[in-house]
Amino acid sequence: MSFFDDIRRCVAGGSKYGYYIVLFGGEAAYIGGVTRIAEISVGRIVLISEKRVLTLCGEELGVDGIERGGAIVRGKIKRIEEGE
Questions:
Q1: Contact indicator for 53, 29 with CB cutoff of 8 Å
Q2: Distances (CA, A) of 77 to 2, 17, 52
Q3: pLDDT for 49-71, tens place per residue?
Q4: Is 26 in a helix, a strand, or coil?
Q5: Which of 18, 37, 54, 62 could hold 49 in an S-S bridge, CB 3.0 to 4.6 Å?
Q6: 83: number of Cβ within 10 Å
Q7: pTM over 0.85
Q8: Which of 9-13, 18-22, 39-43 has the lowest mean pLDDT?
């Protein structure tokens, strides 16, 4: 159980899309609900959740940490796209 899972339960009551994102000033993000990482490059990271595909676009992107069900992405995050 992660700290962010506890916050999500208290505030959001769960996510109908199978993921949640905590942004840290556009320089990093914690994405919970990740089932796998589909692509990693310096300009784009594609993450798969239970129900959605998330694409983080920006500069100097990288994955700093992966835990069961979550990932930490660092770099200049300029936009996040969601798809099915």
A1: no
A2: 23, 21, 19
A3: 888 899 999 999 999 888 888 89
A4: coil
A5: 18
A6: 8
A7: no
A8: 9-13
